[in-house]
Amino acid sequence: MTNEIILIAELVLVYAAVPLIYRFAGKTGLYMWSAIATILANIEVLILVRAFGMEQTLGNILFASTFLVTDILSEKYGKREAKIAVNIGILASFSFLVISQLWLLYTPCESDWAFESFKTLFTQTPRIMLVSLLVYALVQKFDVWAYHKWWELTEKISGNRKSLLWIRNNGSTLISQLLNTILYTFGAFGSLYDTKTLINICISTYVIYICTSIADTPAIYIARRMRSRRDSDSEGDENKIG
């Protein structure tokens, strides 16, 4: 199976999972996804692959799905709930950073076979996770702010708060992802790869983010039409802005 097919399959599965989780677990499910996706993205990003003719790190799809989560929360419930998801992602990243480093302090027994692999994997993780934590906090908070600024603009253009969802969804995410791509690539991998590779990673990563941003548009429309089984109708009506 080629890398391209696997990436497309991951994109479909991840973006299908987010509205399904919202359907069955409500806001709690979206908060849970923010934590899981943030941790997994920071592990997956250690892998460098070639796909669609470009060198690229993995983790982009999972990370992009956290923007989908905050956009759904903004659209359905408002800025406060979206900020909660961002804070949960920050807390999850910090917790994983601390706990993963504690693992490396253990002295393995003679029959252990996994410790060296863990050491190889997570020795680079502190720097990557620290950069990711800082960039994630900055970019996600910017994205929530930008989403609501775009919302003010789309409401002025259409005269309707619910119209032009695709503009505020993609407008906020594409700008945020550009900021994220530059800050994260040079912050996390600046000493690991040469400048040419870093530039290639930036270009390929942002191209992927453009695709993932556009691809998540159906998911947010589907989620907006859903009534979560976990959230009551009255709660949704009281908190819903869009």
Explain what the structure shows:
This protein is mainly α and 242 residues long. The chain has one domain (3-239). The protein is 78% helix and 3% strand. Strands 1-2 form a two-stranded antiparallel ribbon. The protein starts with a helix and ends with a helix.
Report how far apart the termini are.
Answer: 42 Å
The number of helical segments is: 9
- Specify the biggest β-sheet: 2 strands, antiparallel
What share of the residues lie within helices? over 70%
The total number of structural domains is 1
Per DSSP, what share of the residues sits in E-state strands of 2 or more residues?
under 5%
Task: Identify the quaternary structure here.
Answer: single chain
**Rounded radius of gyration (Å):** 19 Å
Shape: globular
Structural class by secondary-structure content: mainly alpha
The order of strands across the largest sheet is 1-2
Mean pLDDT: 87
Low-confidence stretches: 233-242
Written as H for each helix and E for each strand, in order along the chain, the element string is HEEHHHHHHHH
- Count the strands? 2
Write the layout of secondary structure elements.
Layout: H1 3-44, E1 48-51, E2 54-57, H2 60-76, H3 79-103, H4 115-123, H5 125-158, H6 165-189, H7 195-215, H8 217-225, H9 233-239
Antiparallel strand pairs: 1-2
Helix pairs in contact: 1-2, 1-3, 1-8, 2-3, 2-5, 2-7, 2-8, 3-5, 5-6, 6-7
